[in-house]
């Protein structure tokens, strides 16, 4: 997993709970890196799961709520740091459709060692069906990021359903498109 996700999670914890709480969460989680992440480094995805678990225990927040708040934060970081990917994009569907064919192509140019999930889609006039497949069990993170994307682009499109595989390595999301 690229360090940007982990470094932003630590920043998210610091902003929401304070630096002392963030350090306590890092210490209790026992992450191998000690919570020191380079945005371009590679880390075991388990570190994110460990940090999420400890943050949930620390805050007593429901996992889905915490993950959605983090994904909303992360999506805004993507907008800030990779604004070019948003140029000319007018809807969540347009953004989600370009993940594999545009965004991940550019990510691979910058980080050839990145192991990226795959997003395939089928689109008709009313729905976008997005299939997510990853070597890591992070489908709930993908769902939260899809929801963050929908929220960012407004209320005209909505997530109708999500089916996450038991192993958390794949999922199907069905999004209702805005009327043409």
Tell me the quaternary state: single chain
What is the radius of gyration computed over CA atoms, rounded to a whole number of angstroms?
A: 16 Å
Distance between the termini: 38 Å
Enumerate the spans where pLDDT stays under 50 for 5 or more consecutive residues.
none
Q: What's the CATH architecture name of the largest domain?
A: Alpha-Beta Complex
For the secondary structure, the number of strands is: 4
Q: Number of helical segments?
A: 6
Instruction: Give, in order, the helices and strands.
Output: HHHHHEEHEE
CATH class of the largest domain: Alpha Beta
Classify the fold: give the CATH topology of the largest domain. H-NOX domain
Share of helix, binned: 40-55%
Proportion of residues in extended strands: 15-25%
Strand order of the biggest β-sheet: 1-2-4-3
